[in-house]
Every structure is written in C-alpha cells, then in structure tokens.
C-alpha cells in the first residue's frame, strides 16, 4: 500500500488539504440513499469503507466505519459511530465479520483497488456495494465543454465497472442511479442543472479531481462559464437541464452478491 498523507489519507487525494469543508458540500442525497438501502437488503451489520464524513451510512443498522483521513473523521456528525483509522487495502477484521459492506465515492482513490475489493469481499458475508462513476460515461456531463482536463482526470482515476465486477466475483449487478436535479451530494454531476454552483471554489474543492489539475484550469473555467452564463450561451445549449428532474450520468451502484444471510 502506498504511503499515507500527513492527515492519514491513504489514496491519491490529500483530504488534509481538500477536505476541510467537504461536509458542507457533500451531504447524502435521499434519492441516492434509497438505492443503497435497497441493495443492503436485510443486512444488520454493515461496514463502510472509506467512510469519509459518513454519507449514506444507514442509522437503523449496526455500522462500523473505517476512514484513514483524520480530517474526514473529524467531520463525522455526532449521531454516527466514530470511524476507525484504517484503509481499504488492510481491513482489521476477521473473515465474514459483516452482513454487508459498502464504499461510496472512494474506490477511485485507493492505492490498490484489487486489494481493497478483495478485503471487502473477505470480511463480508453478504452484499458488497460500490457507488462509483463509470469512466465511459463521464463525457455526458457538460463540464467536458469547459474543463475537459478535469473529466480526463476522472476518466483516468475511475476504475472500469468490469474490473470492479470481476474483483467481486464476476456476478455483480450494475445499477444505474439517476441524479436528481437538486442533488444534495455535490459531486460534479450533481450540478448538471445548477451550473452557477460550480463557480464556488468550495464546490470544486469538494470534488477531488480539481486538485489534480493546475489552478489555471479552474481560473479559466470560472471565467468561461461565468461569461457564458451571463450572456446566455450556456442556457442556449443546456438550459433544458435546469428543469430536467433527473440526469442519467455516470453514477453506478455495483452490487456483488455474497452468501445468503439466512442462518
């Protein structure tokens, strides 16, 4: 496993730098949460890997959270369990310890995807849930017109869905998750119909891809999008998105099925 950043971040993104106000912009979205709850089924004990500030952790089940970044652990609300300082590639649990395991918006940051997924499968009796972006569908988002460098970073970082499926046993269910117009979880595509929000530095900082491009890319993006919003260019091409209830973007829920929880 690669060396960790100063705050403990174990992947390629340093949340000691970019995660200060993460929870302000990245609140769990109820629509997306429904897909996760359904996939968890009747699991009673759930492990959340790369748990961050606790988005999508069910409060009606016994949840164990692991998160390597101290900055992110500090942002977890008081009603959620304290997260354990651990990384996906080396989970400190015995085999088959949990009914289900989940990882949301995190696998693209891991230093060793195969090891992390193998660990999730090892410690889980039932389903393993991975909420992630499909790199082959990222160009559906209008950001590709304004900051193609950011999209290119995401394409490079997000693992292919087929690779995740294979690592989980080859029989995973891949569920497309439509993104609602007023999505409260501020990943990039969440702003498909609210472009003004991405002019906010904090909104971009809460999307780790922006930390992998030169600051000049962000400056250019703000100037170009700001101009096009002011003169109507953006709305002429994409204005229909402002009232489109959902966006079929790259968001996928990959569910690897395990043994039955019965008995």
In short:
With 263 residues, the protein is an alpha/beta fold. The protein contains eleven helices and eight strands. The chain has a six-stranded mixed sheet with strand order 2-1-3-4-8-5, sandwiched between helices.
Walk me through the structure.
This protein has 263 residues and is α/β, with parallel strands linked by helices. Helix content is 31%, strand content 13%. It is built from eleven helices and eight strands. It has helices spanning 15-18, 22-25, 30-40, 70-73, 113-122, 143-146, 148-157, 161-167, 201-205, 215-231, 233-238, and strands at residues 45-49, 62-66, 100-104, 128-133, 173-176, 179-180, 246-247, 251-256. The longest helix is centred in the C-terminal third of the chain and has 17 residues, at 215-231. The chain is globular, with a radius of gyration of 18 Å. The model is unreliable at 4-10 and 14-19 (pLDDT under 50).
